[in-house]
Amino acid sequence: MNINLIKIANQFQLAGKVKSVTPLGEGFINDTFIIKTEGNSPKYILQRKNKKVFSPVPAMMENIQKVCDHIKVKVKTAGGDPMREAMTIIPANDGKLYFLDEVEEYWAVCLFIEDTIAYEAAETPELAYSGGRGIGKFQSLVSDLKEPLTDILPGFHNIRIRYEQWDAVLKKDPVGRKAKVADEISWIESRREEMMNFWQLVENGTIPTRVSHNDTKINNILFDKKGEVLCVIDLDTVLNSTVLNDFGDAIRFYTNTGKEDDTNLDNVSMNMEIFTAFAKGYLEEAGSFLTEKEIEYLAFSAKYITYEQVLRFLMDYIDGDNYYKTKSEDHNLVRTRAQYKLLTSIEEQYDAMKKVVKELTS
Ligand code: GN1
Ligand code: MG
């Protein structure tokens, strides 16, 4: 990347002189870097926000700020450390929450929280239990956020809108890949009614909407050294939707015995022990505010979000790989197949998952 990252970093109100800016992690959407400073000054996270996905970026940054401010007040009241238990957005030199560079790319900075661990997989039930508590607690912390959030991702986990996008991409077949994936397309079509039936419950208010995170992979949580959740990060996708999306997305990620893009499908399945541990932790924190209907659909949300992820990867493949970063020609198709394997494993264990939720809530 031919960008002067140090120059970009210097556009923000950092304490200390910038020493280095180097890439961090492997997000599919944004580009992320770590800023190191001289002496004992703090480190920071710098991100180039994907303006094709998040639109408009300034409204997204305001959403994030509202959520962080709200959490900080609550953490402080509870006697915690607001600089460690919530994200801190660092404004640009002009006071804005972002910096717009000369090629119209948006950059944002937050404080790096020291002495934390970000896991790439839920290796143990204990970790899954902590993660579940972390997501439940996050939802509970933002449950009384009164300030409205701008919907910068219309239709993000909304399957009705996803089907509109899907139908349009299939009709266009812009790169001629459709014929090759007839089987995969049938995976999506055969479940359309089931998914729409669920979504209608959200649309008609049977399932309420609340502030939710919407990207609850395990690496979006910082753990402390004791394995407790310290802070939920990556707030780009905070919006008003059903909190079931957070549960479902976490189950999709935590319980997968393989990788999201595993080429060996035998590796991929839903781990029931991890499911049980996550659900237990989650319900300990969220059980008090969830309605009966939300609890009834908790296990279903894992099917819903995993299905949606199959659709999103396949749609991007047919569309010519415009959304997700890919590492090979067939990467989105590999991801589609691996997530579908996970979906079938969830479907096979669905009754058992419902039973677990029932036992945990009775
Ligand atoms: C994207 O960028 P990352 O890895 O945090 C995506 C999620 C998907 C995920 C698939 C804004 O998240 O919705 O579930 O990839 N984020 C957006 O791993 O589309
Ligand atoms: Mg992320």
Describe this structure in words.
The protein folds into two domains: 109 residues, 2-Layer Sandwich (Phosphorylase Kinase, domain 1); 237 residues, Aminoglycoside 3'-phosphotransferase, Chain: A, domain 2, CATH 3.90.1200.10. The model has no long low-confidence stretch (mean pLDDT 96). With 362 residues, it is an alpha+beta fold. Helix 4 packs parallel to helix 10 and helix 7 packs across helix 10. The site of magnesium ion (MG) has 4 residues, from loops.
CATH superfamily of the largest domain: Aminoglycoside phosphotransferase (APH), C-terminal lobe
Structural class of the helix and strand makeup? alpha+beta
Q: In whole angstroms, how far apart are the ends?
A: 54 Å
> Any idea how many domains?
2
Overall helicity: 40-55%
- What ions, cofactors and ligands are bound? 2-acetamido-2-deoxy-1-O-phosphono-alpha-D-glucopyranose, magnesium ion
Biggest beta sheet attributes: 6 strands, antiparallel
Radius of gyration over all CA atoms, rounded? 20 Å
Beta-sheet strand percentage? Answer: 5-15%
